[in-house]
Amino acid sequence: MSCLYFFLLIYSIFIKFNEVFGQFLLNQYKNYGLTKPELADDAYLTIVGSFASVGNGSSRVAWALLFDKFGFRKVYTVAVVLQVLMILY
Question: Would you list the domain boundaries of the chain?
Answer without folding.
Answer: 36-89
